[in-house]
Amino acid sequence: MELRQRDNSNEKTKTAEEFARELKANSEYQARLWEREKQIAANQAIYAPEDAALTAELREHGVAVSSVYDLVNTSAPYPELYSVLVRHLDIPHHRVIREGIIRALTIKDAGVAVESALLKHFQSERDSYLQWVLANALKTVMPYHKRKKYPDIARTFKRQV
Fold first, then answer.
1. CA angle, 138 as apex, 137 and 140 as ends, to 5°?
2. Beta-strand runs (E) in the chain
């Protein structure tokens, strides 16, 4: 059996600008993009009031945020907010807000209160995706010597979501 190397010399590569122009001219792609944007806007309208109420409470503790996801995307410490976020784990929230709260609590050395709250919610969470998010958080927050007592955390984390 003879192996031949493929000759790509006749294939033209595209620049990012050319590709962007093609996508802009592609009506099928533009229709899908428009539908996706409408769905995102509809979802935001559903959970925006919850996010606004939560962020107003966080601002009362002296941290200027416009969304719980501002905490997820910062490297600045905010230990004064852990108790507020932990309390909000017990309050029913839209899935997107709940995920943001969990991710905002995914802080190494966040402490026993955060660790305990995440574990409690991991053990009772019925949404498989959020359970995975909680397992991910526990891999960061809970030291391995404690985490190994709960093999479900590792099993859940390894599961495809």
1. 70
2. none
**Residues sharing a CB contact under 8 Å with residue 135, sequence separation 6 or more, in sequence order:** 122, 152, 153, 154, 156, 157
Which residues contact residue 119 at a Cβ distance below 8 angstroms, ignoring those fewer than 6 apart?
A: 138, 142, 150
Nearest to 145 by CA among 120, 118, 115: 115
Contact between 89 and 110 under an 8 Å Cβ cutoff? The reply is: no
pLDDT of residue 1: 47
Is this model's pTM higher than 0.90 or not? Answer: no
State the virtual CA torsion across 136, 142, 145, 150 in degrees, nearest 10.
-60
Helix (H, G, I), strand (E, B) or coil at 137: helix
Q: Cα separation of 140 and 138, whole Å?
A: 5
CA pair distance 104, 2, nearest whole angstrom: 56
CA diameter of the chain: 73
What tokens does 144 get? 């391995």
How far is the C-alpha of 113 from the C-alpha of 86, rounded, in Å?
8
- Out of 19-28, 41-50, 69-78, which region has the weakest mean confidence (pLDDT)? 41-50
- Residue 148, phi then psi, degrees to nearest 5: -65, -15
